[in-house]
Hints:
Elements: H1 32-70, E1 73-74, E2 82-83, H2 87-94, H3 96-127, H4 134-147, H5 151-160, H6 166-174, H7 188-198, H8 201-212, H9 216-224, H10 229-240, H11 242-257, H12 261-266, H13 280-290, H14 294-322
Antiparallel strand pairs: 1-2
Helix pairs in contact: 1-14, 3-7, 3-8, 3-11, 3-13, 4-8, 8-11, 11-14, 13-14
Amino acid sequence: MTHIQISPGAVAPGDGRSVPGRSGPGDGPPPNGAKGTGRGENLAGYLFMSPWIAGFLFLIAGPMVFSLYLSFTEYNLFEAPRWIGLRNFTDMFADPRWRQSVKVTSWYVLIGTPVKLAAALAVAMLLAQKRWGQSFYRAAFYAPSLIGASVSAAIVWRALFSDDAIVDRTQKVLGFEAGGWIGDPEMIIYALIALTVWQFGAPMVIFLAGLKQVPQELYEAAEMDGAGRRRKFFHITLPMISPVLFFNVLLETIHSFQIFGSAYIVSNGSCGPADATLVYTCYLYEQGFVNSRMGFASAMGWLLLVAVGLVTAVLFRSQKRWVHYEEGGR
């Protein structure tokens, strides 16, 4: 009987494995059918993406590029654009109403956004506790976010803060000076801020999801060390939900810069008495569609984009100092 010894690393006949220097069943270029299948899958993917690509090119990218061109022209929607260089931007900085719109928008962002987020976090912490009817309260607090930006809600809000309305009558009962907020140049901006704070449902849900991820063992250990509610909030809750807080700050800040509908409707289309609610987008709309200065409006739009981009960059830069992630990085 003949004995065949196979050394380690050798390949037995018929086992299907390839040996260096020799061609095997798995070596060589893929068959033509595999190439055809890959091309077909790529083509199918592009076909499914084609509606989005077409929409992006014709409804977003194309109008953006055209508006950038218009920002350097004088264009009134009826005549051909006429190139004027940087005149729209120089006229903008010299316009006192433009400066007023920047002031009103900045005040709205600096006051409305923190108050809205504070209300959202406070309610989220209440709803994070197990209580009877918790699902109902979550839905009730979230509902204003669904209708807050609607025209009907803004009209109702204007009626609530008008002369001799429910807010005015409540002030009289409490002994405060009466007078509707809508007609008062100093108070109408606060009515607008109150409207945006009332729509805290969306950030509340995000905060609630973040609070659910905080380990309860941290609170138990803090209680054993004698920590009170205040210390647990600042040393456990805030650091643990800081990524969620950063996301909400970023999102709500961008939304605040873009406010238009509620300001326009609450002020009855006049951007407020004495331009008190002349937010940036309201003045942009007035210049572009009322005064037919589309070139000027395009310049305002691009300047707003740059401003929001700079604020976003500052927020991302600052997150290294106060946003904590689970892996220990910042």
